[in-house]
DNA sequence: AAACAGGGCAACCGCTCGCTA
DNA sequence: GTAGCGAGCGGTTGCCCTGTT
């Protein structure tokens, strides 16, 4: 037996909203609010519309402070970063972009950004000095604001989640990391967490170019190696290895997209790794070799608040002159800057 | 000028989640 | 514990506009 419909579909109007309907809905909500009941609202407002339709119209179009039109570069970055990190969680992404709706962002991604990042030409084999300088500018700008979780004065502990984010105390052992690829390189980011789902639609073609590294679930140590294609493989891990960052190099195995700039940053501690990718575009690959997460709730997303904070720090970096936050070591190999 | 193709976007559909009785 | 309900979300559809042939 199916579920009862939320409204009488035969008696509700569908399709585009007329200015009169818009006015009615806006006027009603201005006067009475939504009343917490969208199903009943259209009747009260004198609209022959489904409650869900009213809700959508209000949220996506009539609500005050809705921003329409061009997305800024900053917004692009945030969208890309979050998409790479959490996937198509448009409502979460929208929450980081005041005035933008999830539907707007979803449409923008599907029509513009996805193409933008899948249609890039190959990039030069080696970055020039100037390009290297640009990379460093990117990494500095994106990370120049200390992650609040890492600050000893951080006033609020991370929220709980089913994925057991690190406790405040445990974060004292966290590592903040950031990696920037060479201009000729791309970043592949492998997630063993079901919460960070592979983006099937995004850059699916690049999978063949991804290095075949596999995180260990048993607490492998950090490492940095070079594979036989001279690609830099950066593997970061502690007790549980969730991500590897493989920097695909040049030559026959070059990734066709050749991201102009790729950057990732995040927090690593014993049980969690929160990752941000920036600007250039990413791919994600769910690993089949790690069973650790298999039994955990796939619908949960770990560390949303952390992501928000990361984004917040990234967005505010222009007004903050802090240098790159503390790090325990640094290496610079072949155009790769690795803080760990 | 007409036909066609493709892109952009608003709106719909169906599902999950969370609350409540 | 569970069934019913509404809210919210993400994927998809379909219409309209614009550019091309």
From TrEMBL:
Coiled-coil residues: none
Low complexity bias: start-end ranges: 161-170
CDD domains in the cross-refs: SANT (cd00167)
Record protein name field: Transcription factor RAX2
Myb-like domain segment(s): 9-62, 63-113
Record localization: Nucleus
GO molecular-function term, one example from the UniProt record: DNA binding
Region annotation (Disordered) ranges: 148-170
Keyword DNA-binding in record: yes
A Pfam cross-reference name: Myb_DNA-binding
GO cellular component: nucleus
Keywords, in A-Z order: DNA-binding, Nucleus, Repeat, Transcription, Transcription regulation
Domain spans labelled HTH myb-type: 9-66, 67-117
């Amino acid at each position: 037996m199916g579920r009862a419909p939320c409204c009488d579909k035969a008696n509700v109007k569908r399709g585009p909203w007329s200015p009169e309907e818009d006015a009615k809905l806006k006027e009603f909500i201005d006067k009475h609010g939504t009343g917490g009941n969208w199903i009943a609202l259209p009747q009260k407002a004198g609209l022959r519309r489904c409650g869900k339709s009213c809700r959508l119209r209000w949220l996506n179009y009539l609500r005050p402070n809705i921003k329409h039109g061009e997305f800024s570069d900053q917004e692009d970055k945030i969208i890309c970063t979050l998409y790479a990190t959490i996937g198509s969680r448009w409502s979460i992404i929208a929450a980081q972009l005041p005035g933008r709706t999830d539907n707007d962002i979803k449409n923008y991604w599907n029509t513009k950004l996805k193409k933008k990042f899948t249609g890039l030409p190959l990039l030069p084999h080696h970055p020039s000095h100037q390009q290297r300088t640009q990379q460093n500018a990117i990494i500095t700008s994106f990370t120049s604001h200390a992650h609040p979780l890492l600050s000893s004065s951080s006033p609020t502990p991370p929220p709980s989640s089913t994925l057991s984010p690190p406790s405040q105390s445990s974060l004292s052992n966290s590592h903040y990391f950031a990696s920037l690829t060479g201009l000729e390189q791309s970043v592949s980011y492998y997630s063993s967490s079901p919460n960070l789902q592979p983006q099937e639609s995004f850059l699916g073609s690049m999978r063949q170019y991804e290095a075949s590294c596999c995180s260990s679930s048993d607490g492998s140590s950090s490492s940095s190696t070079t594979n036989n294609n001279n690609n830099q493989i950066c593997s970061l891990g502690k007790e549980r290895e969730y991500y590897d960052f493989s920097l695909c190099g040049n030559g026959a195995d070059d990734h066709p997209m050749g991201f102009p700039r790729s950057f990732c940053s995040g927090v690593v501690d014993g049980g969690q790794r929160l990752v941000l990718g920036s600007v250039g575009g990413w791919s994600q690959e769910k690993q089949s070799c790690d069973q650790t997460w298999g039994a955990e709730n796939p619908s949960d997303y770990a560390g949303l608040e952390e992501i928000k904070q990361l984004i917040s720090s990234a967005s505010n970096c222009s007004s903050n002159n802090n240098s790159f936050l503390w790090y325990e070591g640094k290496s610079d190999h072949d155009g790769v800057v690795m803080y760990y």
